[in-house]
Amino acid sequence: MEIDPFIFRLSIFILAIFVGYYVVWSVTPSLHTPLMSVTNAISSVIIVGAIVAALAGDGDKIFDTANIFGFLAIVLAAVNIFGGFLVTHRMLAMYKKKKKDK
Amino acid sequence: MSANLLAIFYLISGVLFILALRGLSSPETSRQGNLFGIIGMAIAIGVTIISIGNFSTGFIILLIFLVIGGSIGAFIAFKIPMTAMPELVAGFHSLVGLAAVFVAISAFLNPEVFNLGFPGKIKIASLIEMSLGAAIGAITFTGSIIAFLKLRGIMSGSPITFAGQHFLNLAIGISIIGLIVYLCNTQNEYLFWSLIIISFLVGVLLIIPIGGADMPVVISMLNSYSGWAAAGIGFTLENSALIITGALVGSSGAILSYIMCKGMNRSFFNVILGGWGATEESSKSSAKEQKPVKNGNADDAAFLMKNASSVIIVPGYGMAVAQAQHALREMVDSLKKNGVKVSYAIHPVAGRMPGHMNVLLAEANVPYDEVFELEDINNDFANCDVAYVIGANDVTNPVAKSDPQSPIYGMPILDVEKSKSVLFVKRSLSPGYAGIDNDLFYRENTLMLFADAKKMTEDITKNL
Question: Which among A85, B199, B207, B399 is placed 20 to 30 Å from B189, CA to CA?
Answer without folding.
Answer: B207
